């Protein structure tokens, strides 16, 4: 039997980040994942990328993973506008006194870099191709039965196993969800005009199109949110026809656009676990919540979950108190639930606000965006939150944090 202090199910970016943070403590930790181990040194595909803010960058830098990333591409500007409207707003890094408004990183390469940093952590074990048969969540400890392997006993089980969390489903932890009735079309594109390190997002009649700049000045990643029937039509187009449709949708902002990788579609759903805690099992990141990608905050929200949990566990260990104390876990749940709820509500309001073609609402949107664009303090406040430079952040993610 493997006897642990903490077992983390899921070796994605959130689970591996948590393991790295906890490796600084005198704890026995294991990461369990049903898939293969990350292939260290594999070239980034850039097929799936995430936008990371300054708070996430600070944490990953402290852990040594940020420095190993070859795919990170900072963007200096951001332009948001509505098609067929005068609604427009722009941001720039200089105005926010930061080196970049955000960074595009390859999801799998980030996972590789985090895994590599765990290599010399003697108190952390990583078990891959690991199938969990059953979970017995007791009041004091949790027992995991693994297929073809010995059982695992842990004081605290952390579910970081994604939107379709096996742990959450096995323990029948309730979750609220609704279908956005949209699919995200994702691929890399080439532009005839240089992107100028500017992230662009245009709100179209049927959903937003994001054009996210990569390191190559003519290469971008797109996230095009459309209804399922439109997604099916776009997927059925020839490459030339798709390129034409995409160029028109972008308003020719970057000249002619052409596909540079395989096009894939991903259904969009909001998920929110009403309970993040069951006995000594806690949900984090996508296992606890998923949001619409229009603001690019999903990865940041999940990383802040695990940084917050590690912070509270560290306080418990240093105070020589039980790391699975319910008071501690409830404190984590209240803290991060509040952050997730705020972002979910904001994204839903934003999506619904731009989802109507009513002329009066279009006028209000246009006036509102123009007003915010010219209101310096309000604009700066909005961007500070998006950058991860304000709000109820964990200590390690704050701008003023300095390691001991």
| Beta-strand percent range | 25-35%
Which class of the largest domain in CATH terms?
A: Alpha Beta
Task: Assign the CATH topology of the largest domain.
Answer: FAD/NAD(P)-binding domain
What's the overall geometry? globular
Could you name the CATH homologous superfamily of the largest domain?
A: FAD/NAD(P)-binding domain
Sheet bearing the most strands, described?
Answer: 9 strands, mixed
Task: Kindly name the structural category.
Answer: alpha+beta
Low-pLDDT sequence parts: none
**Integer-rounded radius of gyration:** 22 Å
Mean pLDDT, to the nearest integer, reads 90
User: What count of structural domains?
Assistant: 2
Cofactor: FAD
Family: Belongs to the UbiH/COQ6 family.
InterPro entries: FAD-bd, FAD/NAD-bd_sf, Ubi_Hdrlase_CS, UbiH/COQ6, UbiH/COQ6_monooxygenase
Keywords: FAD, Flavoprotein, Monooxygenase, Oxidoreductase
Structural notes for this entry:
By secondary structure, this protein is an alpha+beta fold. The chain folds into 2 domains: 2-177 and 269-397, FAD/NAD(P)-binding domain, CATH 3.50.50; 180-264, D-Amino Acid Oxidase, Chain A, domain 2 (2-Layer Sandwich), CATH 3.30.9. It contains 11 helices and 20 strands. A hairpin with a 4-residue loop joins strand 9 and strand 10. Pathway: Cofactor biosynthesis; ubiquinone biosynthesis. GO terms for molecular function: monooxygenase activity.
State the main characteristics.
single chain; 404 residues; alpha+beta; FAD/NAD(P)-binding domain; D-Amino Acid Oxidase, Chain A, domain 2; 2 domains; 9-stranded mixed β-sheet; 8-stranded mixed β-sheet; 11 helices; 34% helix; monooxygenase; FAD-bd; monooxygenase activity; FAD
